[in-house]
């Protein structure tokens, strides 16, 4: 990776569903030029990774993803970019988060404990 490659940031936080399963939320403009392709990074890094994408509505993309460690969705729409897992969510989300950081294209930030914003945990 070149030192000028952009580093995208994300947090892992509880979801809004009743189970509060963890999810990955990407910060910043995920549609900006140069934002790393999550699908391509995971394809290079996760064993037996497969992804099938479709557009449930015109401005959204939903990827159904599988790898040796489980399944998850990448949900991209105008309001943000998220990775969600329904089955074994704690383990799957941690595996994906660790993989993103190891790629060198992403930085994981701690959830904000104050209004000042998240802190770097890498």
Layout of helices and strands, plus pairs?
Elements: E1 8-14, E2 22-26, H1 38-45, E3 50-54, E4 61-67, E5 70-77, E6 80-84, H2 89-102, E7 106-110, E8 119-120
Parallel strand pairs: 1-7
Antiparallel strand pairs: 1-2, 2-6, 3-4, 4-5, 5-6, 7-8
| Element-by-element helix/strand order | EEHEEEEHEE
Lateral arrangement of strands in the main beta sheet: 3-4-5-6-2-1-7-8
Shape estimate = globular
Number of helices: 2
Overall number of domains? 1
What is the residue-mean pLDDT, rounded to a whole number? 86
> Whole-Å distance between the termini?
17 Å
Largest sheet: 8 strands, mixed
Task: Please give the CATH class.
Answer: Alpha Beta
What structural category do the secondary elements indicate? alpha+beta
Low-confidence stretches: none
Per DSSP E runs of 2 or more residues, the count of β-strands stands at 8
Strand content: 35-45%
| CATH fold annotation | Double Stranded RNA Binding Domain
Radius of gyration: 14 Å
**Level of helix content?**
10-25%
At CATH level 2, the architecture is 2-Layer Sandwich
